[in-house]
Amino acid sequence: MKKIGVLTSGGDSPGMNAAIRAAVRGAIYLGMDVYGIDKGYEGLIDGDISQMNISSVSDILHKGGTILRTARSERFMTIEGQKRAKQMLESFGIEGLVIIGGDGSLRGGLDLSKHGVTVMGLPGTIDNDLAYTDYTIGFDTSVNTVLSAVSNIRDTSSSHERTTVIEVMGRHCGDIALYAGLTGGAETILIPEVGVDINAICRKMVQGRNRGKLHNIIIKAEGVDMSTQELAETLKERTGMETKIVVLGYIQRGGSPTARDRMLASRMAYKAVELLQEGSESRAVGINGDEIVHYELGDALKMKRDYDKQVMELADILSI
Amino acid sequence: MKKIGVLTSGGDSPGMNAAIRAAVRGAIYLGMDVYGIDKGYEGLIDGDISQMNISSVSDILHKGGTILRTARSERFMTIEGQKRAKQMLESFGIEGLVIIGGDGSLRGGLDLSKHGVTVMGLPGTIDNDLAYTDYTIGFDTSVNTVLSAVSNIRDTSSSHERTTVIEVMGRHCGDIALYAGLTGGAETILIPEVGVDINAICRKMVQGRNRGKLHNIIIKAEGVDMSTQELAETLKERTGMETKIVVLGYIQRGGSPTARDRMLASRMAYKAVELLQEGSESRAVGINGDEIVHYELGDALKMKRDYDKQVMELADILSI
Amino acid sequence: MKKIGVLTSGGDSPGMNAAIRAAVRGAIYLGMDVYGIDKGYEGLIDGDISQMNISSVSDILHKGGTILRTARSERFMTIEGQKRAKQMLESFGIEGLVIIGGDGSLRGGLDLSKHGVTVMGLPGTIDNDLAYTDYTIGFDTSVNTVLSAVSNIRDTSSSHERTTVIEVMGRHCGDIALYAGLTGGAETILIPEVGVDINAICRKMVQGRNRGKLHNIIIKAEGVDMSTQELAETLKERTGMETKIVVLGYIQRGGSPTARDRMLASRMAYKAVELLQEGSESRAVGINGDEIVHYELGDALKMKRDYDKQVMELADILSI
Amino acid sequence: MKKIGVLTSGGDSPGMNAAIRAAVRGAIYLGMDVYGIDKGYEGLIDGDISQMNISSVSDILHKGGTILRTARSERFMTIEGQKRAKQMLESFGIEGLVIIGGDGSLRGGLDLSKHGVTVMGLPGTIDNDLAYTDYTIGFDTSVNTVLSAVSNIRDTSSSHERTTVIEVMGRHCGDIALYAGLTGGAETILIPEVGVDINAICRKMVQGRNRGKLHNIIIKAEGVDMSTQELAETLKERTGMETKIVVLGYIQRGGSPTARDRMLASRMAYKAVELLQEGSESRAVGINGDEIVHYELGDALKMKRDYDKQVMELADILSI
């Protein structure tokens, strides 16, 4: 393969720029030409494509977001849009793509691969919701961002002896809540994969208060089957304890990526361009333990994941 | 004066612990005994009072929140509650108080002073809404916390070319929005002191987009006379640009205080104990320019403030 | 086992407190009594031992350093000292120990185990120099601290177009330099495991300058076989480029642990108390991939490690 | 005035970019053309000058360093160099300059003003060593960077019960040491303006140890009349306490500027372009209390400053 493209798609995540840098510099090192595609599939259809060189990716390693920008593309959802994308790649002579994004973006890549484009999928999402990889690019940064917010909230929560419900991102996957909950010392962690047991939460709140605990932090993923507002009101009603809400929102998406996310992104992206250079079929690149792994793209997206029950149990034991 | 007390009241703010440390160590240095009163006026009425020594305030300088905790006290709102507080102080032999809190807390101090207790009020609030002082303890930290959130949000906002409305604290006073807006490079700043001009915001959004701006950050104080939800929807409708909301909430209250807030708190608290030691009447301690100043407590609370129009104009000029 | 002790030894590392917390709460959860031993082996010999409860480890999860403190102990190097330590444990009825520390500390644990004490070793060191585990507790935090310093230095280095040599910790193991180097985008990484090739460094500096690079960051582990001073002078002489030195020192040891270090510490420490509770022999607990693993203590300490050549190659490719 | 230039000179400081942004956008707002001069006086002599527009300064507000870069210029030290600089400005039609830098850089500006160029000097240096202004651009950021390092070092210092001497920047002016010392809770602060009293330091160390203090932090400005090495050895010898050294170096120069430094830079730079637009003579712009002030350039540079004795006394009282 001589010419490849790189694009980012879907919600951005910290470390996408590190992945772009590694894909570009890695591709050039391996003797390929590399093109940046602006605004994901939307830019691909529109031909927002330009060649990148070593300097195109200077001083981006530490930046959040994505210099290639990202967008949702209605047009790419259609066969017609995908054909148009394929034609555009042909007119630039681009044979393979590195696609950095979440589940939906990689599914888009799978669609494109059916039109004869070789696609290397990289898991770029803070949600850690891709079953084929232990960790996604951006997850570690996001958890650390939540930790920093938890630390601030604990200060004020302790001063007032109040309960605070912190809503974090995660529609279907509660990993941000789970990891930030354990490492932030949250008293209760609520994730979409497990139902809400109001009695258990109230019990823990009351026991904590009786033991003289100054604060009570509940970390709740947004996808949990009870609104944060309703939860807070119910807890207040049942325990009589003042209960406040903080919705962290988009601050979880940004920020300079952690060392781990930069490393993950760099290793995965380099593996992706190596695979393209070797003439591999379409693959999804991930990490298993400390090893970079890759699977047939369609297979990877069919895998099912579950949350880590041991981590949840440990969180419960340690937050007594 | 031989025995004094320290309490924190109302919403906590970063730097309160630095103020407590300076009051305690300063008082001891000046030859006085010093008592900590737990949970503000509530603890004062209940006699949650204990003597502090040099080590009581070790390793608290860098901590957010307040080790003396804080609470709202309904009981203290009544004359009866205030008398009870006065009696409690008498039974401990405490003649003077350092009270660290916002407008309401200092008004409580003024009430208490009318029962014969000498009160030194310190402006402990992130809101910067006390007219008698240029800056309050916690304001600088809070603005820097907002800046850090703005930085994260700008990453993701740029990647998506979207508009984000960031709601910050400030019911009556827009200083957090104003200072974080100018220093965070927000395109628009909305404060309670000034009405919302929807047309002006839309114009700026459209002009920015036409000039190729990747992001548009609007910082809005919570007290502005239009809900953040309504604002975002109106902007989206009128400009057709995707508009997201982030409500920063309680993360603005916590966090390790900045150097400036620690300095401010230390200097003000030491001045307060000096005044007590010298037998001064009740005063409010503040900063004017770079000088620590103090006013008769009642007079201080009568002063009116306005927002800094020059800062607003400058923000407008620089965010073209 | 009914009674266990916890101690930290050697240089401290971020995450030790998270490990202490998990050991204490985990042990209590599993029905054991748990004692904290102050100042490592020195305190063990002196009987600085006290029972810990759930509240003993409240609000320490996010703190750097170790609440149990640490010390070097000459006395424990001798058989006599070790016997004394064993007797002290007997007088408290403590049968097993969780020891958190680096190579030397775990070797001390191995010595103690020969006197009939069951020892669970946890890798608590920023150096990542224990062969039996992929990562040590504190390494991730330390690398992120270095990254943050690199970011600051890059600002000023770019403004002056100068070369900066940053010396980081690592006497025998260059992992901090290697990981911070790749993720910080350092132009050159020097580790003790590989010799210094002055010509290669100069070549890269000159090529970078010719390509218009504004800065040149060299990250060098302290254990490299050429002093930082000599290196900087040699580079300046040969290339004519201004070359500055920054020695990061002890800031790498402190700081609030990252999410990853807290997770690692919590999981490892809980495994250690589980093993003690189950009546296991002495083991070293580590992580392999994403799995918590454990080895016979003596075997673990005999393993040999090498640096990750793939990471080094990747760093080289990406820092063109 | 219709055409002005902006340059940064000397050591860089955080906030210089905020000043450049405000000068450029402010000048354009006021109807002037504005040119950026690369690499300070060196670039001025060489004609590295290009026109800037609103977008030239997008997304630089939060960045450390200076996008205009800086350099020392031997050539500009000569009358001939200054004449050459003046000619270069004439050939571009530039009548006035905004110069952001420290004492030496502003003296360069004064020299240039004698050749008929109107110069507005802005205090851009972390050292806070310019007498005519209460604070310089970059000082607040630098103090906060030192605080963050102190916090890390305290963790490890407490764990080992050791003394640490932290050397910070400041050749003639000890303000970084003084402000970071007070706000970081350092036990001892050593500045060039005051001699070293070894006995006093030892006394404090021993008294602290006897009172059970876990750590002892000494913050020392680099310009103090005793080397850090010698100091540490002397203290160790006299007290028998382990004493470590950390030299913070260039990390103090970089980093994203604090809100306060961005505000200071923005206000000062806008005032500078206003003065140019009004046809003012050469001035030095500074801050006095909370007011932006300006003085005749030569007069400003003749002023003498002293350290703040009250702050030093307060630091001493609070660090008992």
UniProtKB/TrEMBL annotation, chains A, B, C, D:
Keyword NAD in annotation? no
Q: Gene3D superfamilies recorded for this chain?
A: 3.40.50.450, Phosphofructokinase domain
Q: In which pathway does it act?
A: Carbohydrate degradation; glycolysis; D-glyceraldehyde 3-phosphate and glycerone phosphate from D-glucose: step 3/4
Binding of Mg(2+) occurs at D103
Q: Which residues bind substrate?
A: T125, I126, D127, R162, M169, G170, R171, E222, K244, Y250, I251, Q252, R253
List the subcellular locations: Cytoplasm
Q: Where along the chain is ATP bound? A: G11, R72, S73, G102, D103, G104, S105
Function, please? Catalyzes the phosphorylation of D-fructose 6-phosphate to fructose 1,6-bisphosphate by ATP, the first committing step of glycolysis.
Instruction: Say which domain of life the source belongs to.
Output: Bacteria
- Alphabetical list of NCBIfam families matching this protein: PFKA_ATP, PRK03202.1
Look up the EC number in the record and give it: 2.7.1.11
Q: Which family does it belong to?
A: Belongs to the phosphofructokinase type A (PFKA) family. ATP-dependent PFK group I subfamily. Prokaryotic clade 'B1' sub-subfamily.
Complexes and interactors: Homotetramer.
Annotated residues that bind ADP are located at R21, A22, A23, V24, R25, R154, G185, A186, E187, R211, K213, L214, H215
Q: Could you state a single Gene Ontology molecular function term?
A: fructose-6-phosphate binding
- What is the designated name of this protein? ATP-dependent 6-phosphofructokinase
Lineage of producing organism:
Bacteria, Bacillati, Bacillota, Clostridia, Peptostreptococcales
Q: Does the keyword Zinc-finger apply?
A: no
- PANTHER family reported for this sequence: ATP-DEPENDENT 6-PHOSPHOFRUCTOKINASE, PHOSPHOFRUCTOKINASE
**Which residue intervals define the domain Phosphofructokinase in the entry?**
3-276
| InterPro entries (UniProt xref) | ATP_PFK, ATP_PFK_prok-type, PFKA_ATP_prok, Phosphofructokinase_dom, PKF_sf
Q: What is its main location?
A: cytoplasm
| UniProt entry keywords in alphabetical sequence | Allosteric enzyme, ATP-binding, Cytoplasm, Glycolysis, Kinase, Magnesium, Metal-binding, Nucleotide-binding, Transferase
Active site positions: D127
